[in-house]
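Minutes, methods subgroup
Present: GH (chair), OT, SY

1. OT presented the first of two proteins processed in the latest run. Sequence and structure tokens recorded below as shown on screen.
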Amino acid sequence: MRNLSPGGWSGSYSLQKDAEVLKHKVAPGTVPRVIAFGRPYLGILSFFLALVVLDAAAGVVNPLIYRELINKGILAGNEGLVVRLALLAAAGSVVDSGLTFWQRQIAAKIGLEVVLDLRVKVFAHIQEMSLAFFTRARTGALVSRLNNDVSGVRDAFSNILSTTLGNLVTVVLVLAAMFSLSWRLTLATLILVPVFLLPARYVGRRIKALTRESYDRAADLNNLMVERFNVAGAMVSKVFGRPRDETRAFEQQAGRVRDISLKVGLYSRLLFIGLGLVASLAVSLVYGWGGLQAVRHALDVGTVVALISYLLRLYGPLTALSNLQVDVMTTLVSFERVFEVLDLKPMVAERADARPVPPGPARIEFDAVSFRYPSPNEVSLASLEAVSGPGRQAERTVLEDISFVAEPGQMVALVGPSGAGKTTLAQLVARLYDVTSGSLRVNGLDLRDATLESVRATVGMVMQDAHLFHDTVRSNLLYARPGASEAELAAALADAQVASVVAALPQGLDTVIGDRGHRLSGGERQRVAIARLLLKAPPVVILDEATAHLDSESERAIQEAFRSALRGRTSLVIAHRLSTVQNADQILVLDKGRIVERGRHAELLAAGRLYAHLYRTQFTEKPQA
């Protein structure tokens, strides 16, 4: 922190900060919240402050020892004093280095503790957000808040603690010592500070602009790699891509990143060289003017050496402090962006007096339910979506006046054209959304009054595009029921007609199945997802095109497994293939968010309306030759 080498001077951190941050108006209450956030660390912060003062004081003592060593030791010919003072200076340097290391370790620990605390809070809060939030927010923006913004808090927080605070104490003590030795020489050396700071600010702005551009270029390069290296992107690239053109495009973008990095390095080196030059000029001034005064006996030689030693400790901290306001504002802005996410209220929240869903076979009752997707302003942040204005208007109503009852153990089928609201209706039962009006009850309890944990335990889903994690088959199954035994895992796989497939994998249950389970076929992925549902064994089961990826033979096997697995459970089945719901206890036909027909298969077919039309389209109409 107190040398002028590129590796030891931290002033470049401040000079690379974006000065535009000063134009930002921090939200009211941010500063008190930051202070409140730091209260748990008050003890260690106080200890850290004491170390900073001790470290700065230790750094100020050594030049005074050098002064005495020269004046009363070397010039006086006192060999014993020279040895004693040299050893004392060496001990002081060891203490100074130890204190510097200690305070930086503590500053790093505080910064990392703050990051851990914030990151866990943000992650837990995002986990509580409704599904609507995730349909709006960009995944990359969420990851950025957890990584970049929270890390920005750490960097700025740690910098203010270890560098800025330490530099401030150092500058005060060094200047006090220099003025006490020679106020004239001290003022003369300070005249050179603006000579460096003015061009340094210009270079800092250039570094800032280039650094920002380098981030953008690196993001473009990362985006290209992510799009080409994930399974779906790689498949498209293999089928439609041109390898040589792809390589040239990558080379061009990588070349831009290289060029900008070279420019950043050039300006950074100029900055360090400029600082070293000004420090050298100041040293020359002290040697020249101070030397003349020493020759004229107006100043002793030891004082000249001490002043030079102080100069080497002054310019780096002084330059870093020139951007103290930027450092503080950057910290506040980083905190503000994190608080912005933490302040976003979940649309689906658990009430203080929430009760568990009553146990036992489930009875589902929709009573005049209407639903519209919430507006973006209700569920998300414009900064997470990168949109504003018309793109943030309220959504239209997608379900209107829905009323029906699914009795315990019944299978209720939801059919209708695309966009009719079938999936949305099923998602309300899982409380991925809350109804806009009306009431949705399970065993007599309005789901808005139920605990979220009990809803998750009550309802299980298998979606059309089943998602499996990049993990082992075992881990994907245990995600539904962490304490399941080997026998229970085997039974679930057998009931889902996928036991032989898993047994044939290289490591069986412990085989890693890749990104989104792409090492398995579509039908195999779907059956593993069904096994996961069967392992959970919830009272309510939702199947959203759960057999869509299965061939006819596998579908028949799964249907048979469902008949036994779903016995005694209430199920909602969404299907475009009407052959899968012909035996449903009740079929609801939805169109434009309303129930337009209801009944059993034979009744609806005889009515000759929308259901009959959908059925004839699938089974009787032949494509033209």
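2. SY then presented the second protein from the same run.
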Amino acid sequence: MSLLNHQLELLAPARDAEIGIEAINHGADAVYIGGPEFGARVSASNSVRDIERLAQHAHRFGSRIFVTHNTILRDDELEAARRMAWDVYHAGADVLIIQDMGLLELDLPPIQLHASTQTDIRTVAKAKFLQDVGFSQMVLARELTLEQIREIHEALDPERCKVEFFIHGALCVAYSGQCYISHAHTGRSANRGDCSQACRLPYHVVDAQGRFVAHDKHVLSMKDNNQSANLAALVDAGVRSFKIEGRYKDMGYVKNITAHYRKLFDELIEAREGSGNPLARASSGRTTFTFTPDPDQNFNRAFTDYFLNGRQDDIGAFDSPKNPGREIGWVTKVGADWIELELDDAHALLHNGDGLCYFDLQKELVGVAINRAEPAGRIGSWRVWPKDPIAGMRDLRKGTRINRNRDMDWVRTLEKKSSDRRIAVWAAFSETPDGFLLRLTDEDGFVGEARAACAKEAARDGEKALAALKDHLGRFGNTLFAPLDLSVELSRPWFVPPSLVNSLRRDAVAALEAARAAGYQRPLRGKPVEPPVPYPEDTLTYLANVFNHKARDFYAKHGVRVVGAAYESHEEEGEVSLMITRHCVRWSMSLCPKQAKGVVGVKGTIKAEPLQLINGSEKLTLRFDCKPCEMHVVGRMKKSVLNQQAREAQAVPLKFYRTRPARQPTQA
């Protein structure tokens, strides 16, 4: 069934079915995963059989499976995309996450549709339009503030459409769907799942007079998103689905981050019990863990809550796009092939295989992989032998602060079974005229029963027999269920053999699982408003990412009169905005005219003039649109990309309207 207004959905990523299963086991209410094709992570595809296996496991807990179907499509790919939608639907998928509006013009299965973050939802008008064409959930732009999220939520019909928001993971510096640098420079399209991540590269920043503003800085690289402190505020703003980024991430990341937010949401739900607005989990069961979740233990570029609470000064990972880890101590000696360290926590341990790092004098991160680690005499002192030669470790000296960005003890902990998710049941054992009955009722109201015909034998010691019976009834072992209450109603103390109790419990559990499977309801597809509602604008440029004629027809049906072809169609050969972002390099370097307002002697002297980014032979221009407080990264497509893609473009030509079509004369 669809997400209810009081339910909070924790949505976890999965690179493959095994990771998805563990995401469910660690408390996810839903998992998003790539299908065989057309997902916006080119190296994270999965077979239909794997989708089916994951869906079967998720549905046991009432959790849902979202399949990412969110690349833009060429005309020759539409039929394969349509078939894949039906294949994953038959495999049990609950939702398709899509970007390409051409899919809405196809014969899709009756599966719920969610608007991908790639659709760039920043305004009330865009959100209402997507709701009215049939989307039941939408991922808002990560750059929005709490007030903007609340405004969009309040404009939507909560019975028809829910708000989803990213709460953790890597941040794209561009508005999602509004970055074309990868395609312009390499031919690899981010809108088709193959981003080259130019935003993580180092750049020289040069002003209009050719002066260096920054040298070899990762000025487009953002810190990682972490909204742990803002969950209650997001709930109050109307968010109901909370998304963790990471379909390329490993098993340990998904286990840890899912567990981290599962605990936070359970605490929030518990805190709101008895209030006027109680909350609930969007799936069944409670989850316990064998470890204490800790987001700092996974790869991260340090954390930010981005723009949620307004523009912040410290959102960028400008020194390095790598994982800086946590400070653990400092260097006391450097030998020919070893390093001695003094740890801040004298009781902390180092392990063979740990990853250490430090910042050199240019603030670049240098990695130190430990081959062997041994205590060096006094408590808190360690000698480590790095895997790589010390001679290559720049600026390593006595007093250098050392961080750890991989803890092998932590890694090994998460390689083992690390969670237990159980659904609460009430077990009622009673007698029948010819034997006994065990009825299990779970927390969702599903019932499973098992009966056994047998001769009844009075117990020699009634009190002892009753205690033994309850003990055996409560042994749910490796099943999905955990007893919340056990009741026994017998006319007299009977002796019930343990083997009979085990058989009844096994059959009742099987019946309960069957009842849950039969009672699972997939969410319904939203119905588009008729007649078709108008799109908020009547003109679309390449920024709308329209790459096939079905998408063009969709927008034309909704009143758009001028439709430009997607950047990937190569109709935009001159300089254009290759990225639009709310991040501002001028602001981050204290060069913004707004920052200078009121500063004596500075006011009026700082202007938002363009800057230039240089990486080797690549040059990009930064232009600043101060009214909406946005930055445009401007450039042109490389000739090699144009030549490389010419044959494909000729095979699949696009001829969309570049000017307004003439109005047809009305018939008399």
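Chair's summary of item 2: Residues 187 and 644 are 8 Å apart (CA to CA).
Next meeting: continue with the remaining queue.
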